[in-house]
Amino acid sequence: MTITLLAHHIIWDTDGNWEVAKALPPKIEVEVNLQEAETVSDINSQICNQLSDATGWVVLDYKLQGYNAEADFALQMVNARHENEADEFRKTCEEAEEEMAEEADDYNPEGEWFNK
Fold first, then answer.
1. Model-level pTM?
2. Burial, 94: exposed, middle or buried (Cβ in 10 Å; 0-12, 13-18, 19+)?
3. Same domain assignment for residues 47 and 93
4. Is residue 55 part of a domain?
5. For residue 17, what are the domain limits?
6. Cβ atoms of residues 90 and 41 within 8 Å
7. 62/39 Cα distance (integer angstroms)
8. How many domains does the chain have?
9. CA-based nearest residue to 8, from 25, 20, 31, 33
10. Do residue 74 and residue 62 come from a single domain?
């Protein structure tokens, strides 16, 4: 029997290179074959091997949680929608700020307020 889990809060062995550590994924989906595992150590080996194979880096620690790919996809879609809404709001604010700056320049084209 194979189960899918989510390895998260992964700590990678990057020899203290924080730039590399920040670029590595904080979570990865893993599959554990329970029939091949006789001990917890066997399960840990399966997980660590998959994580290392995915990135090329050794794993120091991780946490696990049950994982459902469909639920994760739905969550990603909701988060993307919220990010898009936030981006649209930011863009609207920037456009309004530019418009206000243009209006101020039109009102005071030669910088007369600052020359007195």
1. 0.56
2. exposed
3. no
4. yes
5. 2-67
6. no
7. 18
8. 2
9. 25
10. no
